[in-house]
Specification:
alpha+beta; 3 strands; about 70 residues
Amino acid sequence: NDKYEIIVKDNGKGFNIKEAFHKDKHFGLSVLHERVFLLNGEININTAHGTSITIEIPIKENNNIYGEKN
């Protein structure tokens, strides 16, 4: 399976993922999930020791994000 894989890590203190999704006027994680979903991808967020975000997006030749042929 051909895919793009994006990994972002830091060694900070981590954060509570449930709280982060429900903060007022903070949309970063929600928008990230929406974009990955639109691209038929997968996202994994680990916040145990620091933060690690892994995104996998399948490569689809000759298709745009709406599934239409180019």
